[in-house]
Specification:
By secondary structure, the protein is an alpha+beta fold. It has 2 domains: about 110 residues, Fumarylacetoacetase, N-terminal domain (SH3 type barrels), CATH 2.30.30; about 300 residues, Fumarylacetoacetate hydrolase, domain 2 (Alpha-Beta Complex), CATH 3.90.850. It is about 20% helix and about 25% strand. It has 11 helices and 26 strands. Strands 6, 7, 8, 13, 14, 16, 17 and 22 form an 8-stranded mixed sheet that branches. Strands 4-3-2-1-5 form a 5-stranded antiparallel sheet. A hairpin with a 2-residue loop joins strand 1 and strand 2. It is globular and about 75 Å long. The termini are far apart. The N terminus is likely disordered.
Length: about 425
Amino acid sequence: MAKSPISVTRSWLPGANDPATDFPLTHLPYGAFEVEGGQRLCVAIGTHLLDLHACAEADLLPPTLQAACQSPVLNPLMALGPKAWSLLRDTVTHLLAASSPNRKKAEAALHSIAGATLVKPIHIPNYTDFYASIHHATRVGQLFRPDQPLLPNYKHLPIGYHGRASSIIPSGIPILRPAGQTRPSGENQKPNFIPTNALDYELELGLYIGQSNLLGSPIPIAKATQHLFGISLLNDWSARDIQSWEYQPLGPFLAKSFATTIAPWVTPMSALEPFLVPASPRPPGDPKPLKYLTAPKRDRQIPDVKLEVFIASQSMRDNNLAPLRLSQSTLRNLYWTPAQFIAHHTSNGCNLQIGDLLATGTISGPAESSAGCLLELTRNGAQPITLPTGEVRTYLADGDEILFRGSCEAPGHPRIGLGECRAAILPARPSQP
């Protein structure tokens, strides 16, 4: 990916210069917020958002970008391609920089993030969820297949499944506890239909496709990252008891299709360039990926995103207790990289579309404290977690709120944060089929 020539780091907006902010001038993630009659695109800066629709109306943006920036979603901008993405990013950086001559005009397009209702900024045609953390796959396998934790194909190709795009919702929308068919333990027990008793979160990152490929035209791995527009935090909620009964032989279905939560901010790939690090090397003895999955050395990089999971029960919130951190992980723990996702996804000629969402799967590290879901942390309920209130959890209870945070840091560069991805659990509907 081409690097932006912009090296400005200070803004005329004081909050953007705070070392603790998620949104310094070097970040500028995209989002969307509600207005009367619809929604508008914006960019986050400090504690504020910059209304791109208003900027276009005030002629603060190049003519070639104005129509796309007045769209309610980012897809038209994404369709313009990487040169347009760089042009908009450079324009907004200059507009918000300390030396900007257009400060007064830009101030009129600013709104407080705290007072805004953030919504999904991208129309998502398709959703694919991968299974790219070998630590997660191994721990889960040890629970259910102790003699063979990893299936034979895992180290040869990125495992994934096609998810449900229609139930992807923005951060802050509560999750209704799903009901489904489960089977009690015991071979002779009949299945029943009840609200899940094993509701779980999954710590993931979402990757948005910004450039499509034609049906029948695979994307070479050396060009794969050119098709990425940006990333967001993502929680792929799972009902483990429903999942364990339904997943054979075709994989996840109703246990995951009820909801997937995405953070409201999309961090552009160019903002991640200072934080790229070499992808983790494969352990000695692991098979070398096939040629179509082997990237040139310059492309074997991954953003060093640090990730955290927090929980706050209803009782904790009622007593003003801070959320409890459950785990920490990092994107560097992935066995398969985003470039490999794209190369494999399209290797059969599958046509990715602008706005498609690819998720990493649960991101877990080698230590138990870096496990990215309760299935791992509690060993499927065998090791309960105690909250500060004395409450015990094996899986999520009604009223629990899960919060994800992500950030990137590197010497000589302002820290950036991915915002928050959060949702609370509501009870199941009183009447079930």
